Amino acid sequence: MSLESVRAFFSEKAPDISVIESSMSSATVALAAEAYGVEPARIAKTLSLRIGDRVVLIVAAGTSRMDNKKVKALFGVKPKMLGLEEVAEITGHEVGGVCPFGLKTPLPVYCDVSLKAFDIVVPAAGSTHSAVKITPARMAELTGAEWVDVCEIRAEREAVA
User: Fold this and answer.
1) How many other CB atoms sit within 10 Å of the CB of residue 149?
2) Mind listing the pLDDT tens digit for each residue in 79-95?
3) pLDDT per residue over 25-67, tens digit each?
4) What's the CATH fold of domain 2-150?
5) What is the SS3 assignment for 44-67?
6) b vs e for 27-45, b when ≥16 Cβ sit within 10 Å of the residue's Cβ?
7) Quick one: which of 159, 137, 161, 155 has its CA closest to 59?
8) CA–CA distance from 115 to each of 11, 13, 58, 137 (Å)?
9) What is the share, in percent, of the chain residues with pLDDT greater than 90?
């Protein structure tokens, strides 16, 4: 269902963007980078967080790391990562395929400024074998995302370790 909901999202809102499927798993940043032939930082990972009584998605560069202090300063409470089952239930996407497109439940989406370093990023597309190539600005526009600064950027070799 998840891949189909993402395809439907793009069919309606951005028919010029195609979902790419890979025979290789793209369930982690490293695997996705290999599957789609890009450096790990270009993988736009989607974090599913509980912030107080709300659930939000934060999309960030693949080699960045969420800074809990920055998130707490922005939202006023400490963030908590959702559990695997909760992620699938709320977003409609399994972990490894979570993205801000074609969500089961409308959620606030935030794009971290770490994505702005790239002309094109590669977020998942609802499954562990699918993605899209999109500009960060277009992704933010299509999802109604707000730009935030809540991550630290790590060096490539540190991020892969």
Assistant:
1) 13
2) 999 998 999 999 999 99
3) 999 999 999 999 999 999 999 999 999 999 999 999 999 999 9
4) YbaK protein (3.90.960)
5) EEEEEEEECCEEEEEEEECCEEEC
6) bebebbbebbebebbbbbb
7) 137
8) 24, 21, 11, 9
9) 93
